[in-house]
Design goal:
Blueprint: H1 64-86, E1 96-97, E2 103-116, E3 122-135, E4 140-149, E5 152-155, E6 159-161, E7 167-178, E8 181-189, H2 212-215, E9 220-232, E10 235-244, H3 246-249, E11 271-283, E12 288-299, E13 306-315, E14 321-331, E15 334-350, E16 353-363, E17 371-383, E18 386-396, E19 405-413
Antiparallel strand pairs: 1-2, 2-3, 2-19, 3-4, 3-5, 4-7, 5-6, 7-8, 8-9, 9-10, 10-11, 11-12, 12-13, 13-14, 14-15, 15-16, 16-17, 17-18, 18-19
Length: 414
């Protein structure tokens, strides 16, 4: 069976205004392409918070291996039970509609185990996200995503609950004219490349995220976006044009940029204001997608305005999938760090089992060294909404950014 069968979201279906917001691949951003919450932001605020907010409840007697096994076993049991109930209708849309109301609730959860080289093992309930969708059945649709990050973590020394806080990841209202023109108002994932718009743990092939997609640009915008598609002969062109007013509409978050659950340590940006455009050409019966992203923005902790150019590709010939992205950030005409790129290959191993290989380059703002990373992994997808992933990450000049590590995650979209 082709890999596409297991992809809950790929930008390969044209927007369908009549479709449910939970239909995979409806719209380039949000409910209509990310299935009303399928294109989620995977937040990695970290197991080891630098701001001292993490609290331990003193469970130092709990061995880390037993705790890790227990956490992952619980989610795996959930995966298997849910897979068994869904196999007969594997394409059933996620979410729970309340009677005949216009409200649908859903979400996803993931646990991550990391054992970095030279460090201790740790595990975390990395993400617990809750979605609410309101659909008028005509031209209006609203969506919200609330997330609790790192609600529970365990390492060699202790286990306990962190200070639990809800973060508003997305909150917006859509006016849906037709497939050619739609308007979005609110907070949404920045339409830069593919990964940033679809990178929740249940929806991607690896535990870790490419570094450049974390550090090169702000991951959220708050403002207005126009999106849709244009017919070009036998092909079609998807567009997203947006204006960001985050400094006016949204107060600055206190979330830190410390060590994430997968032992990655890169600074992230918070947008103040900006504007941008993303174009995606859908070619060869939509087996080939070529994307271009351009944005100009001002962000916290950066001096002056920044311009960024990016390209991305998604190619699915037969039973394999090849994807990649590359970004360069400029300031007054000069290349500014960070910059980076990655290319990823996914191929079938057996029924519902897939191999994954990725190579990436990344240069941050504090060093002249270029970090080069490789990742090899295996993913088991009993259905499109559950996944168990094993990954080994290795590289050069990567100790302080993304150290060599063995990574495991189990995730469920509900």
């Amino acid at each position: 069976m082709l890999i596409r069968t297991y992809l809950p979201v790929s930008f390969r279906r044209r927007p369908d205004r009549s479709a449910s917001p939970y239909t995979p691949g409806n719209d380039p951003q949000g409910e209509r392409s990310d299935s009303s919450g399928l294109s989620l932001k995977t937040l990695d605020p970290g197991l080891h918070r630098d701001d001292g907010k993490r609290t331990s409840r003193g469970l130092r007697w709990l061995p880390v291996r037993a705790a890790v096994r227990g956490i992952i076993r619980l989610l795996l049991v959930g995966l298997c039970l849910h897979a068994g109930s869904v196999n007969a209708q594997a394409d059933k849309r996620p979410g729970f509609r309340i009677g005949s109301s216009q409200l649908t609730f859903g979400g996803y959860a993931s646990v991550v185990y990391a054992r970095p080289e030279g460090g201790g093992a740790s595990a975390s309930l990395r993400d617990l996200s809750l979605f609410t969708t309101w659909d008028s059945g005509a031209s209006w649709r609203a969506f919200s995503e609330l997330e609790i990050g790192d609600a529970f973590s365990v390492d060699n020394d202790s286990a306990g609950f962190s200070d639990i806080e809800f973060d508003v990841e997305r909150l917006y209202l859509d006016w849906l004219a037709d497939s050619h023109f739609n308007v979005r108002l609110g907070k949404y994932l920045a339409p830069v490349g593919r990964w940033n718009q679809v990178h929740a743990d249940p929806l991607v092939w690896t535990v870790s995220r490419p570094l450049v997609t974390l550090a090169a640009f702000p991951q959220h915008n708050t403002g207005m976006m126009l999106y849709g598609d244009v017919d070009v002969g036998a092909h079609w062109l998807e567009y997203q044009a947006y204006a960001d007013y985050s400094d006016t509409l949204e107060p600055r978050s206190d979330r830190d940029s410390g060590t994430s659950a997968d032992a990655t340590r890169v600074p992230t940006l918070q947008s103040q204001n900006g504007a941008g455009l993303r174009l995606v050409a859908h070619l060869d019966a939509d087996q080939l997608q070529l994307g271009l992203s351009a944005t100009n923005f001002r962000a916290s902790d950066l001096k002056g305005r920044q311009s960024l150019l990016g390209i991305d590709v998604f190619w699915s010939p037969g039973s394999v999938e090849i994807s990649g992205e590359a970004y360069r950030r400029f300031d007054t005409g000069r290349v500014r760090k960070p910059w980076g790129d990655f290319i990823q290959l996914v191929f079938p191993l057996a029924d519902r089992w897939f191999g994954v290989a990725r190579r990436e380059d990344y240069a941050d703002a504090d060093t002249n060294d270029v970090t080069r990373l490789g990742s090899l992994g295996i993913a088991w997808r009993p259905t499109a909404r559950q996944v168990l992933k094993l990954e080994y990450r290795f590289g050069r000049h990567n100790r302080n950014v993304a150290p060599d590590a063995a990574l495991v995650s189990a995730a469920l979209l509900f």
